[in-house]
Every structure is written in C-alpha cells, then in structure tokens.
Design a protein that fits this description.
The chain is an alpha+beta fold and 175 residues long. The chain has six helices and six strands, in the order ββββαββααααα.
Length: 175
C-alpha cells in the first residue's frame, strides 16, 4: 500500500503540489511568542511583498548597571539616529568599539546549545527561558551552579529577583 503526504503553506493553508518550492521562514523573535525561534513554510508568491512591508531596523541589547539581564529594543533607523545628539550617528558608529561575536545559534566551535538539557540549562542566553529549562535549574541547582562556575559563568541565586522570576523560584504573585 502506498502513502501520499500532502504539504500546505503555513501562511495561507494552500496545498503545495511541489514541496521543493516552499520557502523556509524563521521567526527569530516575536513579542507574543515565548518559545522562539519558530519555522514556517510558505510559497514564494506569499512573501513577494515582504520587502515592501519590512522596515530598516536597528536591534539593541541594553545592559543597565547592576542588571543581570539585558533588554532588547528594536527601533527604526530614523529613531535610532535621533539618539545621537552631538554628532551624526554615522560618526558615532564609526568610532564605536567592535565586538567579536560568536556564530548565532551555537558556540564558537559551532556546537548547538540546547538550554533544555543539563549540559546548558542555566547558562546565560538572550532567549526566553523555557519551562523545561526552568524546571531543570530548580531541580538541579547545585550541580548547575557548579558547572556554571567551572565554565566561568555567573551562578544562579534563587534570592536574586531576576533569577527567581526567570527560573520560577517565585511565582508572579510573590514578585
């Protein structure tokens, strides 16, 4: 007996007769979705106007003094440029310190970091903490803190308000 698999566009629900034509779309971050990134598939014609709909944006991670985690902001380039008041933003950026970054989605050597495993749970990251990671941290705090110390990362303190919220040591009612 044979089996036939039918594929549909995630955006329109339209039947896709030739799945090789599907465009892969990665939702990297979305304010209303906790567990990103997400993958969608669509037909090329469904995203033909994407360039017209998009905006040129600047993504900032802002680390306030004494804050454990940074806050991400997305601004239009026009609004970002307004932050520079003494000289044009182009001049400010030309004189800015260059940061050597790791490849996105993994470590410097390309390995993927799954924060829902004991190997990576509790390691600082920009994404949202999943319920699975939070549970691993709560149930294995001593072992995870020992590993974090060896790896040179900050340890997790259940009494620290940011850590308590992130890993579920307190409920939102207690906060």
């Amino acid at each position: 007996m044979g089996e036939k698999v039918m594929r549909f566009s995630d955006l329109s629900g339209q039947l896709v007769p030739n799945p090789e034509e599907l465009v892969a779309i990665t939702v990297v971050d979305h304010p209303e979705v906790e567990d990103t990134p997400l993958r969608l598939e669509a037909l090329p014609e469904e995203i033909a106007d994407l360039g017209k709909l998009s905006v040129k944006a600047v993504v900032l991670d802002v680390q306030l003094p004494n804050a454990e985690e940074s806050t991400r902001y997305v601004l239009t380039t026009t609004n970002f440029n307004k932050l520079a008041t003494e000289q044009p933003m182009a001049a400010v950026l030309a004189g800015a310190e260059r940061i050597v970054t790791r490849r996105r989605g993994g470590s410097a050597n390309g390995e993927v970091r799954n924060h829902e495993t004991l190997e990576w749970a509790g390691t600082p990251h920009k994404g949202k903490t999943s319920p699975i990671e939070a549970q691993l941290v709560r149930e294995n705090l001593d072992a995870i803190n020992e590993r974090l110390t060896v790896q040179g990362f900050r340890t997790i303190d259940p009494a620290h308000p940011d850590h308590a919220r992130r890993y579920g040591f307190i409920s939102d009612v207690d906060a």
